[in-house]
Structure formats: C-alpha cells, structure tokens
Structure of Cytochrome c oxidase subunit 1:
Amino acid sequence: MAHAHSVKRYKGLMDWLTTVDHKKIAVLYLLGGGLFFAIGGFEAILIRLQLIKPMNDMLEAQTFNELITMHGTTMIFLGVMPIVFALMNAIIPLQIGARDVAFPFLNSLGFWTFLFGGILLNLSWVMGGAPDAGWTAYTPLSSTMYSASHGVDFYTVGLQIAGLGTLIGGLNFLATIITMRAPGMSYMRMPMFTWASFVTSAMILFAFPAVTVGLVLLTFDRVLGANFFNVDGGGNPVLWQHIFWIFGHPEVYILILPAFGVISEVIPTFARKRLFGYSSMVFATILIAFLGFMVWAHHMFTTGLGPVANALFSISTMLIAVPTGIKIFNWLFTMWGGQVKFTAANLFAVGFIPTFTMGGVTGVMLASAPADFQFHDTYFVVAHFHYVIVGGMVFGLLSGLHYWWPKMFGRVLNETLGKWTFWTFAIGFHMTFFVQHFLGLMGMQRRVFTYLPNQGFDTMNLVSTVGAFLMGVGIIFFTINIIKSFMQPRGCANDPWEDGRTLEWTIPSPPPEYNFKQIPLVRGLDAYWKEKAAGNTEMTPAEPIGPIHMPSPTILPFVMSVGIFIAGLGLMFSGEEFSSSFMSFIFNNWIVCGLGLLITFGSMLMRSLFDDHGWHIEPEEFQEEGV
C-alpha cells in the first residue's frame, strides 16, 4: 500500500473527474443539481409567461407540452434529487463519525450516471424534439402512435441511466449508515438528518426498481415494437399508471424526508433546545416510509378501480397525515420556550412548517375519492403538489444549504442576502401557487396551453406569473450570495453557529480529506452538545492516532458512465433515418449500443484487474493534508 506522496494526486479538472472523496462528490452533485434546477426553473418561467393572459400565442401547443413534460421531469429527477444527494454526501459521513462512505467508487459512479442521464434527457431539445407526454408519460400518450418523435425515447433511456445513479447512491448510504457509525452511536443516537437519509435510502432501494421496469417495458414498446401497454396487441395502458405510481408516490417521500431531516437539525440548533420527541420523530419517519408504499392508487381514482379499491387507498392516504402531524407538532414544541434565532437557515425552516402543512391539508382533501373526481386534472392538484414539493422540499434544501454551507466550503453565507432570498422566494411562492387552488376549483384544467377570456381566470393567472418571477429573483439573490461567499477567504470556525449539536461541528470547516484524525467516541444523542455541556471543548477519541487508509482517485466511473451514455444514445437511433450511408453506419443503433457497452464492461474489467486498494496518510502528514 502506497504512502500519501507516492499516490498520483491530480490537480484542476482531472481532480474532479477522478475524485472518490464524498465531500467533492457532494460539490459535484450540487453543481449538477443546480444546473438542472436552473433549466427546470427557466422552463417554469416560460410556462407562466404563456399563461400570463388569455389566448396568448407566445408558445405553440406542442412546445408547451414539451415544456411542461421537461419542467416536471427535470425538477423531480434532475433538480432536487441531486441536491438531496449533495447534502447527504457532504454531511452524513461527518454526522456518523466516518472517514468516508462505504463504497467510494460506487459513490462516484452514482454521480456520473446521474449526470449523463440528465444530459441525455436534455439533448432531446436539440435532437428532434423533447418528450411531450407529461412528466408521468402516461400510455397511450407516450406510445409511438401519439408521440412519434424520439422525445419519449430520450425520457425512457435518460431516466433509466439517471435512476441507476440514484439507486447506487441509495445502496451506498444504506451500507454507510449501517456499518460505519462511530463507536457508541447506536441507531437511537443518530442525528435526525441521518435517520431521514437512512429511511430515504431504503425507500430508493424498493421504489426505483419499479420505475426502471416500467421504463424498460416502455422502451421495448417504442423501440422494439412490443405490446406491454398497447391495447391493440393485448396490452394495458393502466398497467403503466400502476408501475409509475408504485414508484411515483414513494418518490414524493424520498424527496420530502431528507427535508424533514434538515428541519429537525436546523430548528433545535437555532432554538438552543433539544429536538422535542426524538423517538416519536424516528418512528414517524419510518411509518411515513411504510405508508408511502401503500397509497399509489390515489393518483388513479378516476381510472375505474372500483369503490373498494378507492376506499382502501383513500383511508391509507389519510393515515399518512398522522405521522406527518406528529413531526409538525414536535417542531413547534421544539421552538416553544426556546431562544429562537431567525437566521436565514432558520427562516426557511420555520417558513417550511405552515407551507408544508397547507400542502398536507389539500392532500387530505384529494385523498377523498368523491372529491378527487372533481379536483382531478385541475390546477388544484398543481397547487397541492407544488406546496408539498416546493414549499416542503425546496424550502428544506435552502434551509440546509444556508445551514451547512460553512461546513462544506469554510465560508458563511451573507445573512442579509439570505433573508432577501427567503422573503422574495417565500412571497413569490405563495403568490404563484396559492391562487392556483382557486383556479382549480373554478375549473381551470392542468396542461392547457391557453384559455378563453372572461372565465375568472385572467387576474389569478397574472398574479401567479408575477409570483413565479419573484421566486426567480429569490434564486438570483441566493446565487449572488454564493458568488459573494467565494470572494471571502476560507476558514470559518468549526462551529460557526456556536450551538452545533452533532459531530460535523467538531472538525474544521471545510473538513480535511480524512474527516477525523481520530474517530470520536459517542456518549449520547446530540453527541457534541453533550460534550460541551460536560465542559469539554473536543470529542473524546475512540482510537489512538495512527495511519489513515484512503481510497485512490480513479477515472473509471466517469468512463463507465460515458459508455452507458453512448449505449443509450445508440439504442434510440437506427441507421435508416440518415440519407448518407456513412452516417447510417455510424449511427446504426446496435453498433453504437455495442460500443457503449464495450466501454462500460471494459472499465469494469479494468477496475477488477488494476485496483490498487488505496493509500495511507501517515500521522505526520495530517496537518499538511488538512490545510
């Protein structure tokens, strides 16, 4: 095994392409997710501009269909999901007292497959038209009969590749949390963000295979002429809805549970109090995950499943309100009597509570099957899920980013700009989506690219569009804040909030490559807070100082992902579409597909043959490595 200086250390771009360090992969996820979030936000602005007035002709119907499909798909799969993984990568190993994740190579592979899947999906804009069947891609709308371009093929193949990255990430964090916790950290001493991420990872493990199977079947229908969803060939279009929503509803909780975890870290820190009802929070998280798999057909009340199925799914949906309610009351009780500081991070956390509650209340309304017959496919549903996903998920992520930014980058974000971000984003959010409840109740349908005047829709759509721009201004403030922070010198305090409770606040900001010189000994819940209360300034180490083993950087995850990307592209295009015989040969789908698979499997073989098993950092090199 090599010493630190005999290992090839890359610089610049090559460092980022080859890194297996979870902290750098967190930054990559943040950059990738931020890019796709910006693309999805731009698509949303275009949608709202089209709906700003009746009979607007800014966009054609086909372009509008492509925009709403890509906005939903990009935001759910490529925007917020990777930012969740950014926070998980940056924080979880630090919170559990680990030096790395369980599988650093897989961690890198997960990021690159996500990125290339997202790029493949967005290439559809310049390669013959984007998917246009809605983000749920319902059959038969997504069949070749109604969507003849390659748009939906980009959707099916791109999401399979990106979903592979998410599945790998979920497996990795399950293994990390189960096997790599510091001595003394039992399950009931884990921080709530770690718990939420643990349960989320388990959900990913069960939910993502379902959508992968569905996407494979839809690819077979479209590329190979199969009949899984084609009624003429004996297929069943409702089968797609079942497959999609068996994944799709747990996905909502896969997104929201990490946000719950963030809120459960931020509120106790800025209330200077222990989280109220820790045990009930843990069990509520597990119960939400369990019930999340039992409710998928509430998206399908109008498909004719019958009164028994509708009643069962209606009841199970309403039950989810119970563990969610437990969490909301616990957050409120945590603040009750606390010395609450309204930092930017805490403003987003506190703003999250009423906003998410409103989304939950409309969710219970939609859970009633007879009411859902009226609400279905109206803007009421649009308002509901944006209150849950944006009012919950995005508020939670912005809270977490403001809170952990100093730990990730060694620089504190500007509080004034952070508050401007909160107020513009929050006011803009409620302007955009609150009125959409009433638009829905008045009968405005989802997915319509224009509407007639004098139906009572005009003013509310104008307000909604103005609100969307205000949200955009909020994100611009946040971007300015990030740029401004990087103009400052690095190196804020270990615990810049002075009230940090968990292990990540015990080490330098940003953390050294090896995280902990010595793995800490955990004596209870809120381990760092407990040590501070006992008068200790540092954690008690659980091991003597010795050499630290680190994984080697490698380019193979990047190369494997390029191979999968090429194979996916080849699967979609066939030779006869090109007039030139040379182009036909180059783009013959099986040749390109085979080349991509050869690159991928060749990289796997190289990994197994030439893995150098990592390297050591010696104690005398600690200080140098940590700079």
Remarks:
- The first helix runs from residue 12 to 18.
- The two ends are 24 Å apart (CA to CA).
- DSSP finds 20 helices and three strands in the chain.
